[in-house]
Amino acid sequence: MRTGNPPAIRIAGLVAAAMAIVISSASSLARGDDEQSMPDWIRGSGNALEMRLSGQVQRKDGQAVDEASVRISIDFNRQHFETFTPEVRDGAFEVWIPVNKYHWYSVTIDASCQDGARAHETIVRNQLRQRVIDGVVLQVERPQRSVEFRLQHQGSAVANAKLRVQLNNGASLRTEADADGVARISLLPHEELNAVTAWSQDQLIGGYQFSRKPIRDPKADHHVVEMVTCRPRPVTLRDSEGKPIKDVPLELQVATPQPDINFFGIPDDVILVTDDNGVAVCPYFPEIDDVYCYADLHSDEWRRVESKYEQEAFVVTAKKAIERHTVEGAVSGGDVFLGGFVVRLGSFQAEVEGRIDYVYAVTDADGRFSVDVLPDATYCAYVSDERWVTPSIDLIPYESATQTQNPPKLRLVKGIPVQVRLTSGSDRKPIAKMRVHVGSNHSFTWQEDGKPRSGVLGRRSDGYTDDEGRVTVFVPAGDLEASVYSTDWRANQKIVVQAGAKNEVHLHRAVDKAVAVEGKIVPWQDDQELKDATIQIGAIDGETGDEFSLKADGEGKFRFETKATKLAAIAFSADKRFAGSAIIKDLDRTASIRLYPTKSFHGQILDGEGQPVASHPVRASIRVSDGSRFGNGFPTTFSLPRIERLTGQDGRYRFESLPCKTEISIRADTLNHQPNQFRSIDTVYLLPDEEREEVITRLGKNEASGDKKTLAERFQITQRDCRLNNFRQMVILADDENEVVADFIEKSLLDYAQQKKITTFMQLRVVPSDLADPVDQSFVERMSWPAVKDGHVFICAYDADENELGRAMLNVADAQSRSVADEFIQQHAPPQQDAQQKWDKAFKTAQASDRRVWIRTGQRYCGPCFRLSRWIDDHRDVLEKDFVLVKVDDVRDRHGFKVAKRLTQGRPVGVPFHSMFDADGNLITDSYGPIGNIGSMSGVEGKRHFRSMLDAACVNITPEEIEVLIESLDD
After folding, report:
1. Where do the record's region annotations for Disordered lie (predicted)?
2. What distance in Å separates the CA atoms of residue 153 and residue 590, rounded to the nearest whole number?
3. Do the Cβ atoms of 450 and 742 come closer than 8 Å?
4. Residue 383 pairs with which residues in a beta bridge?
5. Taking burial as the number of CB atoms within 10 A of a residue's CB, which of 18, 515, 569, 864 is the most buried?
């Protein structure tokens, strides 16, 4: 490929995650999109379907470039399927792109001129059709900015190493370092750095992504790449029986340890394919502790199951891919030519755990397409295009039991325009050339392992803002979320898009230039605590990722510059005897961090039989947050690195030097050390004047569990929960070991996604084994519940006063049984309550009786909500001396969500949440404590905050009665 850049630099492919920067569109290249005409830009069908991509290479003044070279590549991440080098005449070029032949992500175009001018564009699937219709214009220009990378290893320059940078527009540039270890690249005005990778022949590697921690400035002109030594690391691929799998291409991605996980990148010349022994050797595996890595298989025959280290080798276990089935579908409507549209299907029931199975196809001239899908998987399907949209649907394209195809049928409509505007600073300057993402979600459910699951997928698209900071996107009607992700800023906004309305989104960055912040540490007793004190600071505004590690001066003062609007800080004295934390919100005022004596936390880990568990990991996480749990991609909580301890032979552990008045989460591994699972021991908020008792934690099942409840007791417990929470009880008597019966019960009587009023019942399941005890059998006879034949289900409904409302015997083989069950649920569901009426009545009663109002939220599938309701019922006589007690279901009650929001004040606090008001509706206190919502009160922190609530709100309840209430709570 010819290039006019310096000889050491060449333009190449790009990462799939990058999107296009559309420089302009060529009206002279535009073609019709009329439904009546057959355009000349599409030909063939199926895997032979092709679309003609035409373009022009121009200078910024519009003059055609004759001497340009153009390279076009079809890519998916680092996989390059096919490359074209079309002839350029009078600045024009064209090429036929095979659009269904490969599982591709992007078509990349690079143009270069002999004088060094260049241009790049990435076209992703949903953009290709419009680019084919409009044509592509590449405006070449010469780079104007030079960026320098200094490559070093242990302080010494690394000479002649190779370097690759990936840019925000998707392009990759390559060069080599000189004898002094300095590599230089030249960038166009709109280009920014996304990632860098450097490698040398003497087995050194270095690299990072600019958006991952530690965050680096992509606009800076000088960067350092610290390279580390490598050694070859074998990657072994085998099946579940341990047999080697040969001839499989794979990628090994390697990164810094958790939690940062900053990837080094893969050197260009590293291509891994397993040999006859199932082994491929990665030549650039960094020698660092706790390296993070994973392997991706580039194979249609094998799917990754798990990866782990075994004796200095990285072992990947794989399984045979599931046989797929080809399903044909069609796109219709829209008064538009139906060819060239990208259809996307996604399913959570993928072959690889944690992945989404995406399949794509491009429609032929008749709007037809075919996709290869997994059997019995539920897919979300929609058209992905820049201008045209379809409602998202969900379906099972292929059902194996009946070998039935369910063709996806999608109807096109014109997208509704939405204008997104980006601004920054107090003067609201427009933010130009920034990528904006928009998404329209589709919620759906599916069956997996006999149980209902739910998830959200849907249409995604993007665009880049113009010089005025605006971009117009075309989307379906309904909920829309717009977001931006840059190296140092993230933001989002949700709107409801309506046809014919003025649909606009405005995302504003309040602080666009770093501001200086000053702070001071306040000692607990004397200034000696301030000497060499350290401060860790992190942004918690959810929009920025700033982090700082500072040392205070002799007076405890410190200073830093940030673009964040809210930060958390944790300070320690040099000897760790004192520590403190603070939230920094007002950047114009001096931030203050008060030190307190540090404390210890200790405990013991026992197994299910009460025996000590030795050498078991226990971890403490120190974190600071103001309760804003959800950000836009950056943290809303600042955490220090986890502290890990191993239990001794007696199962005991101890953490020292923990800060007071700071949230600390204590967790332990599960007994069998299952990956990504843990047992929460406690979340603590230590105070300077307290000493914690040892915490005993049992892992595993306790063989000495409580006595089994009789059927009558289970019935009465369920009945009580129904009475306290406005539910009705449904008894279900059946042999659920019969898979058909179990499936019927799950879908017809338990799946609230299918029938919302199922959430108004509490189900008591009775199976044949429950009837073996004569006591239980006697209860069944007393209730007149009949014997149930195989393949049948008996249901019976009761109101809160234990009156029988109705009963039915359902034959699951009868096609009408599901509709009978649905009608039964509709008929016997309790009437909906009105949360606003509850609110009004409670305050009217409180005014008449000179009491307060204690109102709480709860939901059907919330265990702590039921525990709180039972506790309140147990102590009703005392509590009603001061409180009118109200419970609101924020899901089922009319106006429930609105009333609950009034309680929570918009905070994402979960359920149950509760607040205490005076009779005039003034808030006295609520369940939001120093570590968040205490919910159903328990433990030291829960009891402490609930005591403060009662102290603040109680008038008639005595201190002695408050003490009894607190003591009745669980530890």
Report:
1. 443-462
2. 40
3. yes
4. 343
5. 569
Phi, psi of 256 (to 5 degrees): -70, 165
Residue type, 416: I
Task: Identify the helix (H) or strand (E) that includes residue 780.
Answer: helix 774-782
Look at residue 754 in the predicted model and tell me its pLDDT: 80
Q: Are 658 and 601 in contact (CB under 8 A)?
A: yes
- Per DSSP, the three-state class of 437 is strand
CATH superfamily of 10-139: Immunoglobulins (2.60.40.10)
Identity of residue 715: F
Task: Please give the structure tokens belonging to residue 876.
Answer: 């009703």
Give the pLDDT score at 31: 52
First-residue to last-residue Cα distance in the chain: 72
Preceding omega of 39 cis (within 30 degrees of 0): no
Element (H, E) at 720: helix 711-725
pLDDT of residue 305 exceeding 70, the answer is: yes
Distance, in Å, from the CA atom of 624 to the CA atom of 639, rounded to the nearest integer, reads: 7
- The answer to whether residues 667 and 622 touch, using CB atoms and an 8 Å cutoff, is no
Distance CA 833, CA 888 (A): 9
Residue 24's pLDDT is: 34
Query: For the domain with range 230-320, which CATH number is right: 3.40.50.620, 2.60.40.10, 3.40.50.10610, 3.50.50.60?
Result: 2.60.40.10
Paired with 419 in beta bridges are: 472, 504
Superfamily of chain region 145-226: Carboxypeptidase-like, regulatory domain (2.60.40.1120)
What is the C-alpha to C-alpha distance for residues 447 and 754, in angstroms, rounded to an integer? Answer: 12
Token pair of 625, please? 């947050």
pLDDT of 43: 97
What tens digit of pLDDT does each residue of 676-685 get? 678 999 999 9
E strand or H helix at 421: strand 416-424
pLDDT at 596 over 50: yes
Vertex 866 angle, CA 861 and 867, to 5°: 130
Q: According to the model, what pLDDT value does residue 627 have?
A: 81
Written in H, E and C, the secondary structure of 279-338 is EEEEEEEECCCCCEEEEEECCCCEEEEEEEEECCEEEEEEEECCCCEEEEEEEECCCCCC
Beta bridge pairs of residue 124: 106
Fold of the CATH domain 415-505: Immunoglobulin-like (2.60.40)
Is residue 37 scored above 90 in pLDDT? Answer: no
Question: Could you tell me the pTM of the whole model?
Answer: 0.79
Q: Please, which residues have CB within 8 angstroms of residue 857's CB and are 6 or more apart in sequence? A: 865, 887, 888, 889, 890, 896, 900, 903, 904, 911, 912, 913, 914
Which residue, 675, 334, 312, is CA-closest to 476?
334
Instruction: Give the pLDDT confidence of 630-647 residue by residue, as tens digits.
Output: 666 788 999 999 999 999
> pLDDT tens-digit profile of 419-466?
999 999 999 999 998 999 999 999 999 988 877 889 999 999 999 999
Between helix 711-725 and helix 863-874 the angle, nearest 10°, is: 90
Whose structure tokens read 């004898």?
Answer: 179
Average pLDDT over residues 700-722: 82
Question: Does CATH place domain 711-828 in 3.40.30.10?
Answer: yes
Contacts of 329 (CB under 8 A, 6+ apart): 343, 361, 368, 369, 370, 371, 381, 397, 407, 408, 409, 410
* Separation of alpha carbons 80 and 85, rounded Å: 14
In this structure, what is the dihedral angle of CA atoms 415, 417, 423, 426, given to the nearest 10 degrees? Answer: -140
